[in-house]
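Predicting structure from sequence has reshaped protein science. With that in mind, we have picked out one protein's residues alongside their backbone shape tokens:
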Amino acid sequence: MLTTNEIREKYLTFFETKGCVRRPSDVLVPRWDPSVLFTPAGMNQFKDHFLGRCKLDFTRATTCQKCLRTGDIDNVGRTAFHHTFFEMLGNFSFGDYFKREAIHWAWEFLTDKKWLGIDPAMLSATVYKDDQEAASIWLEEIKLPPEKLQYLDEDENFWPASAPSEGPDGVCGPCSEIYHKTPHGEVEIWNLVFTQFNRVGNPPDNLRPLPSKNIDTGMGLERVTSVLQGVETNFHIDSLRPLVEAAAEICSQKYDAQDLTNENGRRLRRIADHVRACTFAIHENVYPGPKEEKYVIRRLLRRAVLDGVQMGMKKPFLCQLVPVVAELMKVPYPELSETLERVQGVIAAEEEHFLGSIDGGLRRLDAVFNAMETEKRATVQGSDAFEMYQTYGFPPELFETLAGERNYGFDWAGFQKEMERHGELSGTGEKNLLFKHDPLEGIKKANNPPEFLGYQTLTVDDAKVIAILDGESLLETANSAQYGKKLRVVLNKTPFYGEKGGQVGDVGEITGANGAKFEVESTQYDGEFIVHVGELKSGALELGATVVAQVCAKRRAAVARAHTATHLLHAALRARLGGHAEQQGSKVDADVLRFDFTHHQGLDRETLVALEQDVNAMILEAYPVSCMETPIEEARKLGAMMLFGEKYPDIVRVVTMGPSMEFCGGTHLTNAAQVGFCKIVSEESVSAGTRRITAYTGLEALKKIQESDAIATSLGAVLRVPTGEIVARVENLASSVKKLRKELDAVTKKDVVSVEELIKNAEPIGDTVFISFVAQDVDANALREVIDQIRRKTENAAILFACTETNAKKVSLIAALTRNLVERKLSAVEWIKAFASLVQGGGGGRPDMAYAGGKNPEGIPAAIEAAKKFLQDKLA
């Protein structure tokens, strides 16, 4: 029986024998491609190849691509073949081989005993109904029996599905699918896509033949492995079954492989899938968070945590499965072992966070579902979903799934409205794989990418203008009509560095004959093309003209200081905090740097001081900065640090300075001493497990020190002490204030009110008591303490306190509810908003306690009556 690893290697080796170049898997999170959150298919890394946007170093390729899709997430664990993370085997042709070779080679690989050796009698195929070319290859050349070839419509056998009639416009083509017969039915194992048309407008006659026809095939590795190993589900293949069993052992369950309908079995399969997906994503530095791809990872982890809780788990357990994932995937992805500790730590932190609120969330869920049953409602309200998300951290998709298990609908529109109202939209959906149209695309097809000369020089005096763009228009000449407009200019060679890798692009100017002057305000990358963005200040710039490109040397030097200091800071962090302190992102500008790194707690003052000393000690060592280009494998052998999740070319640039050796394409100094000085000005949290340091270099660092000195001198003058005694003086003042505040609080609390008296005089409303009290010149903390005492002594209480100030027309309201009332869908925020306007105020807060400030103390009696009326209506 072939293993998963053997099948993967056989596939790649087979297509190498057909002249295909074996390419590594692209990253799982393609940050270079804004159209997708995760890599959805093998062809994604070749989009520019398919569209002719780049120079082709090869015309045939084969890959095994890491993919992640969330479109069928609710089916994971329930069906035999659905996953979030999976591997896609693919072979590709860019204007080279076409249908005949693609079909013949697929059949050879599947049936030849040297490769997979599948009995041809077990295979069948489909073609697009109008694709007679593919049909004749199957019937006349492969000799597939006619009864084993199906002709299907465009919704099944065209890419994109239904493209001829429904669109979108653009590259498209028919496909042919290969099926394998199993005891459980026909299983699709390979899809051959023949991209041969450009769709233009609506039918008829809207499919125009492409001048260069391409091949894009995809075979799910897990699926074909399950067929060859004769198992009923992908989760029982050799690379996944041990993970399911490990999850069962950790959760103290016995996994029944014979009963695929068992609910705990479904949970264990889902846990295995989700922890595998999250391990790969977090390895590539995608941490759980509130937006886009980070939100997807949070959603997957929390779904898996819920599965564990429903099987009795009370403590983090997913993190224990990370080493199992790494072990099972070590042959194709040995790099997973390098980040085990970091990945486990991130997952454990997310588990702890969700487990802290999940019990209350589940109780609230039960209350919602019970209320729906009582009220005969069939749809979860958007407000309920928002409360679950905001208060208990339940992703709405998870709420929708749990509601679906009870045959309830979900009000997505209402939820989105609540999110918009609170400004918390998360960008949770998958993006579409769309190809944008830009006039620059035509330039890319007609020209090689510009030659970047900025490592060697800041001036190029014989550059040629190959494109001038005004919005979406290509210009032959830019003249006074374009003064003041933002233009894009592309040269055949340039010293300007385009923004990438966290480093800002260069600024400067492009000058030409007859007084032409184009001020470059930023430099960007569009694919492999460097684009100069700015304004034409004088003269005329013509297509094909020879120009002088001049980078601003002062700013380039300032950016280089910050970038070189960033490498030194990274080395210092790893040396002092440990190898887990990996870069999560950076922003390098003129003498200022922002560096995000992995660490699960804030850095104390002593550590920051030590880090700053470490960096400046390396600057004083005057380490030479060397840059060299080398094959990526050689760079790895040298020990150069690479960032997981980044996409690197075959030839990489390695930058070395003292203890630091990193892959880097940015611009640097020639010696670390040229940084001058590095001053750390802040350290803060960016998200769970990620910290950020901001620092200045060169003259900006000196300015920060001078500003701090000026502030210290001014403080010393105000406090009438030398600057060296400021801290001690402030500490004495703070101690005195604290003592006085305690004395004031003690006096205030004595005069507030008796808790017992308030409860005794409470007004009953149904099974709830309404407690109101008006105080004057009372500290809000004292009132909150009284509220807490009341809530500890009563089960169903709604409390409203109003406080006025003697010498000001101000009023403060505090509305609070006991837990039982919150679980009955009452909200203190909604309550206080119902009457805050009567004191000319507005309110906000949490479901159990809300606040409002107003300017009309005379409105307090009316506000109390309105508060009472609200409760009577809600509790009736």
